[in-house]
Design goal:
This protein has helices at residues 16-26, 52-65, 78-89, 108-111, 124-137; strands spanning 2-6, 31-32, 68-72, 93-98, 117-120. By secondary structure, it is α/β, with parallel strands linked by helices.
Length: 143
């Protein structure tokens, strides 16, 4: 199974190490098309090369290929919100993982969307368990 992982790039890279661990866990369920999102060398200014148009076209193609989108949404990102919206529009299975922080709340457009499975987590073990539950119950596959 192909999996599209979404996490903030231009919105901030503070969670890159978290993304990398989530991507590693997702590999038990299939091929993660967007592994670069977890790269420690990727910065807010350097996105795997290419123009904005190239990045958009490539990411939309990957999103179209994947029946599942898993997004880590703790760091707000316009791009991740766009990807979630496109995935919902295309009828994909969508899981959003959110780690609460003081003074921040998840966007109502994500939290209130009935077509998105939203999970709040506090540590990586909880996030991984939520991924496992999502794939077993929503996507109906086990590693």
């Amino acid at each position: 199974m192909k999996i599209y992982f979404a996490g903030s790039i231009r919105g901030g890279r503070d969670d890159a190490a978290v993304y990398a661990q989530l991507i590693d866990h997702l590999r038990a369920y299939g091929r993660v098309l967007t592994e670069h999102v977890g790269s420690s060398t990727l910065t807010v200014l350097d996105e795997d090369g290419g123009s904005d148009a190239f990045i958009h076209t490539q990411d939309v193609a990957w999103l179209t290929e994947a029946p599942v989108l898993v997004a880590e949404v703790s760091t707000p990102s316009l791009g991740v919100g766009y990807e979630i919206g496109r995935a919902v529009e295309q009828g994909k299975h969508v899981l959003c993982l959110y780690r609460p922080r003081d003074g921040r709340r998840l966007s109502a457009m994500i939290a209130g969307c009935p077509d998105v499975v939203n999970v709040t987590y506090h540590n990586l073990e909880e996030a991984k368990a939520s991924i496992d539950h999502f794939f077993r119950t929503v996507v109906s596959i086990a590693p």
